[in-house]
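Long-time lurker, first post. I've been practising inverse folding by hand and with some scripts of my own, and I keep getting stuck on stretches where the structure tokens seem ambiguous. Below is the full token string for one chain I'm working on. Before anyone asks, I'm not after the true native sequence, just a reasonable design that respects the backbone. If someone could post their per-position residues I'd love to compare against what I wrote down in my notebook.
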């Protein structure tokens, strides 16, 4: 196990370099003047433009810029925005909010998605099965911003059940509705994956053997059937956590959440390549670590899987 984790950590290095370089190139290719609007209604003085160009290495080609950025990053320096704010400060204030939002969304997916998937998988063709299938189809069909606006208007504006927007500190209770909106699409997929896995594994030999041995139904479902059926679901949840954090731009915009999605959107608008790369670098690390965690969990769920 230790050698496997070490090998996976080493494999992450080229993946990390490749993804960060690709992100840096994409931001570099965004058209527009990075100093437009930085000096109010007037155009910025040439002396200011020269100073900023020198400070942020904008005269260098993309490769030199990237390797200078990477060198600073390895020393723990994420750089600063054009206004002088350290990017590490933005990360420390924005990421905790987005992590809370993503964790709540993931919790909703796990609880509702697995429960609905198991119940519909065990009781196929029933009323509840048809109801869940229609509900998940509706969630998949609706864009996230439509679901967000509808819930915000009904629950927040018309009925006053919750606050329509989130306060700057973003406490857990105010993030429940945005988390449900963020999780809505993945929740539908998680339910369908769980249902399909349960239906397929119900016909497996080890389940028939467990039933033939006279084991209680609760043990057959909880230990034998559910444990093996969760392997594809765990894979989905593991990769989805990073997707939830990266895909929170729309949800954070609707509910006025000062998270990482809004910061990335603002940085792309003003063409701050170092800011976008710094914020996404942390996101890439989350993706890679969640991928490693999922692979380790395979062995716990299915003892037949070996780490070689």
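-- Answer (accepted) --
I ran through it position by position. Result:
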């Amino acid at each position: 196990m230790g050698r496997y984790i070490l090998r996976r950590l080493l494999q992450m290095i080229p993946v990390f370099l490749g993804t960060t370089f690709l992100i840096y190139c994409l931001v570099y290719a965004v058209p527009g003047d990075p100093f437009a609007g930085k000096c109010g209604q007037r155009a910025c003085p040439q002396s200011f433009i020269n100073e900023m160009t020198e400070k942020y290495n904008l005269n260098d080609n993309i490769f030199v810029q990237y390797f200078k950025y990477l060198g600073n990053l390895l020393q723990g320096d994420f750089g600063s925005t054009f206004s002088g704010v350290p990017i590490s400060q933005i990360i420390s204030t924005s990421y905790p909010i987005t992590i809370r939002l993503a964790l709540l969304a993931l919790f909703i997916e796990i609880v509702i998605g697995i429960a609905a998937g198991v119940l519909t998988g065990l009781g196929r063709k029933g009323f509840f099965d048809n109801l869940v299938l229609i509900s998940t189809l509706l969630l998949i069909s609706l864009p996230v911003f439509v679901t967000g606006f509808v819930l915000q208007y009904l629950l927040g504006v018309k009925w006053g059940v919750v606050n329509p927007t989130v306060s700057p500190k973003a406490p857990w209770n105010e993030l429940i509705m945005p988390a449900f909106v963020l999780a809505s699409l993945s929740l539908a997929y998680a339910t369908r994956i769980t249902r399909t896995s349960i239906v397929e594994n119900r016909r497996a030999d080890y389940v028939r053997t467990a039933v033939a041995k006279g084991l209680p139904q609760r043990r057959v479902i909880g230990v034998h059937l559910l444990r093996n059926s969760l392997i594809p679901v765990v894979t989905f949840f593991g990769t989805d956590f990073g997707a939830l954090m990266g895909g929170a731009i729309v949800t954070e915009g609707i509910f006025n959440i000062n998270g990482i999605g809004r910061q990335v959107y603002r940085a792309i608008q003003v063409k701050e390549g170092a800011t976008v790369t710094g914020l996404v670098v942390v996101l890439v690390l989350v993706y890679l670590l969640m991928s490693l965690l999922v692979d380790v969990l395979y062995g716990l769920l299915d003892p037949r899987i070996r780490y070689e």
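A couple of notes from the structure itself: DSSP finds twelve helices and no strands in the chain. The CA atoms of residues 21 and 63 lie 9 Å apart. Happy to go over any region you disagree with.
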